């Protein structure tokens, strides 16, 4: 999200903004109650309607949907593919951040590499922007749990060979494959609704803490994109166009300029690709390229990826006051607990510059802007 504000307008009130965000958007393991608990029937509406459900209830605008992958909704979803236990877990978690690597980060635009693309996205040097990373929360986690054993059994049933058991899968035409695909689409819709609500809460928090009206703030969604989703797409394979299932896990869609699935307002630049680093490093905005369609089914990296496991990060964090460490780096951090901050500490992730350079040198992405963090909220 971009805010239209510049660094000088926020720096002296940053703590207030963070505290208001922390108040408006529950964070942490099992975080809930941002909204009144939904009925099971209402959760199923969310699973069908995605971000549109949130917009219809006053969270953001129709314009946001134009700048959301799939317009914030996977089509032809069967909510009954989601178990009652998953639905129950989703009743109280809309509008919540969660824990793990989920975050809300307030950044400023430190450097522009592609002026035309940055202008296309409405981003300028020194502008305050907000990165928000969260997903389908407990509902999505339960969907995974519900289908994992079924997939493990399917590997044996269909005689599939996988290099790692975590890559358990099933043919998409099979009952197991289709059931999971339906449940995953529903969980994706829940995730889009969740982020749409939080995006609206971010705007409200800025308005309240800085005493600004929405019009004078000028907050706008740049783009909402998924990084753990399977979709049916058309790609050229062996010299001809074919319908394929592309599962992007830890990756994000990266479409080039002119592609029909890129929002009309962005087609001269290409689709935005976001690559966050750790809490103290910053983030990059990239765009997709034509080569990405040929080399990676229109995909690029999403995030720097872990260098240390969470257990290793906890060992490295032992005896350190990470909140002070972050403050010395110019980043204010608020969190529901110290453990998550330790797990996500600086150094726990791969070098952001190297990761971005790999994507750029491979020709699947192009640099647009670099962001420097000011404040971060963790679960």
Name the descriptors.
alpha+beta; 7-stranded mixed beta sheet
Q: Assign the CATH class of the largest domain.
A: Alpha Beta
Mean pLDDT value: 95
* Largest sheet descriptor: 7 strands, mixed
Structural class by helix and strand composition: alpha+beta
- Separation of termini? 20 Å
In total, the number of domains comes to 2
Strand content: 15-25%
Count of helical segments?
15
Oligomer: single chain
CATH architecture of the largest domain: Alpha-Beta Complex
CATH superfamily of the largest domain: tRNA-splicing ligase RtcB
**Spatial shape:** globular
CATH topology heading of the largest domain: tRNA-splicing ligase RtcB
Low-confidence runs? none
Question: How helix-rich are the residues, as a percent range?
Answer: 25-40%
Computed over alpha carbons, the radius of gyration is 20 Å
H/E element order: EHHHHHHEHEHHHEEEEEHEHHEHHE
Q: What's the total number of strands?
A: 11
């Amino acid at each position: 999200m971009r805010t239209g504000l510049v660094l000088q307008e926020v720096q002296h009130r940053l703590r207030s903004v963070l505290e208001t965000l922390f108040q408006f958007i529950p964070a942490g393991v099992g975080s809930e109650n941002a909204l009144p608990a939904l009925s099971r029937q209402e959760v199923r509406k969310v699973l069908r309607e995605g971000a549109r459900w949130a917009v219809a209830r006053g969270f953001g605008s129709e314009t946001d949907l134009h700048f959301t992958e799939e317009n914030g909704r996977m089509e032809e979803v069967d909510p009954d593919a989601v178990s009652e236990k998953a639905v129950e877990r989703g009743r109280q978690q809309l509008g919540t951040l969660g824990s793990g690597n989920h975050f809300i980060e307030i950044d400023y635009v430190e450097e522009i590499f592609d002026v035309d693309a940055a202008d296309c996205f409405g981003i300028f040097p020194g502008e305050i922007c907000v990165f928000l990373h969260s997903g389908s929360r407990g509902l999505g986690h339960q969907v995974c749990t519900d289908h994992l054993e079924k997939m493990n059994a399917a590997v044996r049933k269909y005689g599939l060979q996988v290099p790692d058991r975590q890559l358990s899968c099933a043919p998409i035409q099979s009952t197991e494959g289709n059931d999971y695909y339906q449940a995953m689409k529903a969980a994706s819709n829940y995730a889009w609704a969740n982020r749409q609500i939080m995006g609206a809460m971010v705007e409200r928090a800025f308005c309240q803490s800085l005493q600004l009206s929405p019009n004078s703030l000028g907050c706008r969604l740049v783009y909402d994109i998924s990084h753990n989703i399977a979709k049916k797409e058309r790609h050229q394979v062996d010299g001809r166009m074919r319908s394929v299932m592309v599962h992007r896990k830890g990756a994000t869609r990266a479409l080039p300029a002119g592609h029909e699935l890129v929002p009309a307002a962005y087609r001269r630049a290409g689709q935005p690709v976001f690559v966050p680093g750790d809490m103290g490093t910053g983030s990059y905005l990239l765009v997709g390229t034509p080569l990405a369609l040929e080399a990676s089914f229109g995909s690029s990296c999403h995030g720097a990826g872990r260098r240390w496991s969470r257990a290793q990060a906890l060992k490295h964090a032992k005896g350190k006051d990470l909140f002070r460490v972050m403050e010395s780096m110019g980043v204010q951090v608020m969190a529901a607990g110290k453990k998550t901050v330790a797990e996500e500490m600086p150094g726990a992730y791969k070098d952001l510059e190297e990761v971005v350079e790999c994507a750029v040198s491979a020709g699947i992405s192009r640099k647009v802007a670099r962001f420097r963090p000011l404040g971060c909220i963790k679960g």
